[in-house]
Amino acid sequence: MKIMWGITGAGHLLNESITVLNKLSKKHELTVIFSNAGLEVVKLYGYYKKIEQIISKNPNNKMVFEDDEKYAYPLSGKLTYEKYDLIVISPTTANTVAKIVNGIADNLITNVVAQSGKGQIPLIIVPVDQESGLITTTLPPRINKDICKRCKMCMAKTICPTKAINPPEIDTSKCIRCMKCEDCCLHNAIITNETFELYIRKIDAENTKRLGEIENITTIFNPMDILKDKLLK
Ligand SMILES: Cc1cc2nc3c(=O)[nH]c(=O)nc-3n(C[C@H](O)[C@H](O)[C@H](O)COP(=O)(O)O)c2cc1C
User: Fold this and answer.
1) Ligand 1 atom having least distance to the Cα of 96
2) Rounded distance, CA 165 to CA 171, Å?
3) CB–CB of 160/180 below 8 Å?
4) I need a surface site. Which of 163, 167, 211, 225 has the fewest CB within 10 A?
5) What separation in Å is there between the alpha carbon of 4 and the centre of ligand 1?
6) How many Å apart are CA 181 and CA 157, to the nearest integer?
7) d(CA 101, CA 108)
8) Which residues pair with 34 in a beta bridge?
9) At 70, is the pLDDT very low, low, confident or very high (cuts 50, 70, 90)?
10) What is the 37 CA–ligand 1 centroid distance (Å)?
């Protein structure tokens, strides 16, 4: 199958989304598209190199960025004649869901969503804001500047295979999430799996419910459930 996968600027469900993308890359042709925030957040969490690696598995795979496409988003107009079988947007921010349910198409992702409806291409949306209330989510990797001693011989800097660490900073756009740094910092200053609680607003949960009103959209709450479809396994 020829699949277009859109990534918006959500850290929540990002790890799960990339796990599914990786599994799909074994059998399917992929075009990965990003909102500007999507690209920024992917780099903050250290997933950019991983996505590059996924894309490199098939010469027909590609990545398309918001800034490649401004202002009319020609890629979205090509969806039908380039014969995409499926479009997935995962993770989908509260912002993008709000735009979709109000029929707004003002960036690469929301134009693809609108054009998929016009071309009647099946579209799966994985919203991150699902039910109103508290959720636990993961923060990007970071060095705690209060704990980091700026050691002359920083073990984390030495072991990092992509030279992403320059204490007290991590350049997460170079990170490959190997997590080797976390274990070898003598002061435990590197944090790669920090979680925090945040509140999902009612308006965002209500917008998610409204996705069901749109003709070609299927809403899925866990990216892994995408793999339950026999055609995608
Ligand atoms: C590190 C980080 C994580 C974020 N995670 C989320 C998230 O889980 N859900 C969400 O709705 N917005 C999240 N945001 C905020 C969005 O990136 C922001 O609203 C952005 O404008 C969304 O743009 P987009 O919908 O075009 O991708 C996050 C921002 C940052 C910096």
Assistant:
1) 25
2) 6
3) yes
4) 163
5) 20
6) 7
7) 16
8) 7, 65
9) confident
10) 7
Q: CA 33, CA 7: separation in Å to the nearest integer? A: 6
Per-residue confidence at 81, pLDDT binned at 50, 70, 90? Answer: confident
Q: What pLDDT, in 10s, does the model give residues 158-171?
A: 999 999 999 999 99
Q: For a substitution probing ligand 1, which of 18, 41, 99, 195 has the most ligand atoms within 8 Å of its CB?
A: 41
Which letter does DSSP use for residue 82 in this model? T
Cis omega (within 30 of 0) on the bond before 59? no
At 41, list the tokens. Answer: 């957040």
Distance (Å) of CA 219 to CA 102, 118, 226: 16, 18, 10
Which residue type is seen at 180? K
Catalogue all structural domains in the chain, each as residue range(s) with its CATH number.
2-130+202-232 (3.40.50.1950), 140-193 (3.30.70.20)
Torsion 230-30-39-73 (CA) sign: negative
- Whether 25 lines ligand 1, by a CB cut-off of 6 Å, is no
Q: How far is the CA of 137 from the centre of ligand 1 (A)?
A: 12
Note the Cα 100 to chain centre separation in Å.
17
